[in-house]
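User: Can you write out an input/output pair for a complex, sequences first and structure second?

Assistant: Here is one pair. Inputs:
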Amino acid sequence: MADLPNTPLLDELEKGPWPSFVKEIKLAAQKNDMSKDLLGQLELSYNQKIGHWKHGGIVGVMGYGGGVIGRYSDLPDKFPKISHFHTMRINQPSGWFYTSDVLRKLCDIWDRRGSGLTNMHGSTGDIIFLGTVTDELEPIFAELTEQGFDLGGSGSDVRTPSCCVGPARCEWACYDTLKACYDITQRYQDELHRPAFPYKWKFKFSGCANDCVAAKARADISIIGTWKDDIRIDQAGVKEYVDNGLNIVRDVVGNCPSKCMEWDGKELTVDNSNCRRCMHCINVMPKALRPGTETGATVLIGSKAPIVEGALLSSVLIPFLKVDDAEEMDDFCDVIEEIIDVWCEEGKARERIGEFIQRVGMGNFLDAVGLEALPEMVAFPRDNPYVFYDLDGDDEEKEG
Amino acid sequence: MAEEKKKRITDIGPPNYEQFLPPIIKDNYGKWKYHEIVKPGVMVHVGESGDKLFTVRAGSPRLVSTAKIRMYADLAEKYCGGHLRFTSRHNVEFLLSDGSKVDALIKDLADLGHPVGGIGNAISSIVHTQGWVHCHSAATDASGIVKAVMDELNEYFTSTKLPGKLRIALACCLNMCGAVHCSDIAILGIHRKPPITDHATLKKVCEIPTVSASCPTAAIRPATVDGFESVEVLEEQCMYCANCYTVCPAMPLNDPVNDGVSIWVGGKVSDARVPPKFSKLAVPYIPNNPPRWPEVVGTVKNIVEVWAQNARPYERLGEWIERITWPRFFKMTEIEFSKEHIDDFKHAGLSFNRTAQITHVQ
């Protein structure tokens, strides 16, 4: 293997206490000419303050429209080994759990057929294999499926769903996020691999309102664990926190968004009818407080990053869903499929569902998908008088 | 004799996660009782059974070589029966049922150059995008800025001395593959000039109506330029979102002189205490200054430290700013306020100050 290119600027990023991506590229470049050329091109970008990748290019594996992002250097003569440098998205296991064996098998495939560089993981959640040539795509896919792995989503399809660690290692998980994520991913395999939507569609599963996968900020469907009954309180545990110096009045009671808690010096009382299930008090005292036992999830719809019409946070669609109940999940999937049908029929190109709802109006959207308007769906009712009164509906009621 | 052709396998989805769960997790699945942070980067989960599971969380550059993954696998075998997991913020977590091995693992991770931390009132790893390493639309690099910022903030990763959680994210353009718009601090690559249309090739590589429809401000119109069927851009209407470039390669915006970084503050996704919030603009533009972007690093560190010194316990950056009000935030961080900070997109009026409650900073 020839020497590594001269990279004085990138070498600066090998210094310091945080692990260095430059060291990683150099590690890969010891054995791999693609990574060596990547190092050279990246140094040039650092010199010139501009990227050197060409726009897109449609490549993939047979029968799929998603899962591979075409990438080509705009300096193929200078860096021939990365003239093709495609990304493969590989659907991660729920909760990003692995064994050493399976990781080594993935590495073996990638060392033989790709750059030896990965992202563990991409922002959406996939394992990212960073950089290979078109001819290797189909062989890599065959070897991946042989090991039980499949590609993730890209483009206008169901993007790879992801979930928090859930009941595998968290006492706050209000439903089985790993199972729900796995089941939904399996149910929508066709929609995930073959882009046929106006734009991307993301499902994300968080077991409580702390939302460790940022579902409320970026998923078209954000499924957030919650509970209906009372917070479980261990008063001796509360006292232990106080005895150990917790300022319970300031840091717990004072931070409660609905002021539903009181501390009388001996006992913590909660007016559960006014509890918003925000998780703060439980976060502060995990040994003393726990979510209730009548658990499920709140389903929210429509969050996205700014492109095209501005960023949106998800808003409530279904206040309480028993995710662990198979029959309720089937009904829920029927609702999702109805929503996707309406969006595919009426949505514009590159219009996420959140933008679609903004354009057609939430009321019309609910009518179209057969859901009832509920007060939980709004922060407050409208404050303008420009109401589209539905008199036809009234007439029908009178006649009926 | 011809070899039988192997059946092509498709649509199998991811492997079932259950096969990768460590035995202690299978035994206590859904039956964890509570957890405690033992020390920075280490927590113990206690099951209703009394079983204890120790988690050691280590920072990672996200961009990792197969060589490094094999090292992780070796450590997992040495300490955790071959099991490990990754977090939603690119950290790697080792799951030990024997708490006495935690310190030896931390030492081995340190020898690999991986700090342990990111749990509780700390910064976790920075969620980020590809940047110049692998993206055609990047207005800045991602990994380089992240490395430079984390080098400076490492002490807040390896301790729990911050008032609350600190979540930083970086996206190298407005597409925001990293969905950075709800972060305590968001570092966002930006363009500042309209696309330079390649009129000679546009018609060959793009559909003109699609390009025109891609513009959120209707600034792109079909036009014949220099004899080519192409589009014209009403430059005063362009807000440099680059959606046109995403749908059409003949409309590049990348610009080594005018591209750079903006900094946004005060967002969150958790519902704890207050609902999720978007990040708001703190610094409209900092030029790209590789390899270590000292101006970006300095600005981020200053914001973190002013917050850390002044916030109440558990108060996230955005909660602190809303309590002290924005004029005091700009005063205390010595960040200049400009007209770029005032929204002029849809519903802009909702962000105007519609109260006479003012802190009157001197």
